[in-house]
Design brief:
about 260 residues, mainly alpha, 10 helices, about 60% helix, globular, disordered N terminus
Amino acid sequence: MVSEARWKHGWCSSFPRPRHPGARSWPSDGEFHRRLELRAATAGSDALAVRAHILRLLDTRPFEQYGVVDRRDAAGYAAQFTEAAAAIRAPAATEQDAEAVTLAEKAIKVIGEAAERIDDSDGELSDAAQDMAQAHLEVCRLLLPDPVRTAEWLAAHLLGDWSHLPELDPAAYREILGEPGWAELRRLAHEAHRSHPSGWTERYVLESVLKADGRVDELVTALSTDLEPDGSTLLISCSPTPPRNTPAAAPRPARS
């Protein structure tokens, strides 16, 4: 059982810090109630209740009007999504919930699929997504999920239509995946590039994986299969993300 002092400290620490000096950060009645529910479930080691609570936090429907979330409500959903990241970290930190990894992966999928319906003009949704990405890394380090399955999930995200929300750095998963998982990620990156050698996303993922390994010669060989009209090939490591025609929340360019 969690002590009262630890319970209070953890609950207070979970509130987001104000973005501006002098601003106050205190939960609304609904947020206050949700956090009490989560703390009670976590303190009581009720994994099913924690899971149900997290899934409710991921739901965009309470914020939608006519199927979209406008700018005024996007901040509320982003705050709730950040709560979900904190909720995923809490049971994992006490080894109460081995499902924390899959819950974080589900959250990342949800935010990607919902992005086109949410007005993220203020960037708060993107911030919340990156917080969830960090939560996923943290629970992977704590719970050590199957490395090959994690590599498959990571490749699917990196090569997917919404891999920029959130951005995941393959190199950050190097130790988590170990040799078997990293070999699988490298194989999947090569396979994707062979299937679509002119795709910016496939090039970027392959480059990110091979450069993390120091395999520059292998990278040049792979990219030479799709030369530019002047006979050269283009490495895109100077850009932290694949080139896009529009801001981060917009869809990827059409595949050629």
